[in-house]
Amino acid sequence: MTQDPNVLKTIGGKFLLFNLRHIVDAPDLVEVREVIGTQATVLEVSVEPGDIRRIIGRQGRTAEALRELLIAIGGKEGRRYMLEILEPENISRGRRVEYQTRRR
């Protein structure tokens, strides 16, 4: 289910888009897509290759904080959110980059 990233249906999607645009250097190129399922809503994020480190943060702290806030929003809304950060296609593989965040 692909939709226009500027038309988000859920509060969590709108919240995530608003916050990511304030974190990255290229806010106009941030895209959030919602995949609404029966059990959870997956929020897929894509940004410029240079901004991927900004939304993940050091040791995944920024991404983990965003996930925690989405859990809180989902609790109030009665919905479960999952954040997926999509890897840019043209990213350099020459240096060590970790994309996965640790879970507690």
Describe this entry's structure for a reader:
The protein is α+β, with helices and mostly antiparallel strands and 104 residues long. The chain has one domain (11-85): K homology (KH) domain (GMP Synthetase, Chain A, domain 3, 2-Layer Sandwich), CATH 3.30.300. The chain is built from three helices and three strands; from the N terminus they run H-E-E-H-H-E. The protein has helices at 11-23, 52-56, 61-77; strands at residues 31-36, 41-46, 81-85. The chain has a three-stranded mixed beta sheet with strand order 1-2-3, covered by helices on one side. A hairpin with a 4-residue loop joins strand 1 (31-36) and strand 2. The longest helix is centred in the middle third of the chain and has 17 residues, at 61-77. It is globular and about 35 Å long. The termini are far apart.
Question: Any chance you could write out the topology, listing elements then pairs?
Answer:
Elements (H helix, E strand, L loop, with lengths): L10 H13 L7 E6 L4 E6 L5 H5 L4 H17 L3 E5 L19
Parallel strand pairs: 2-3
Antiparallel strand pairs: 1-2
Helix pairs in contact: 1-3
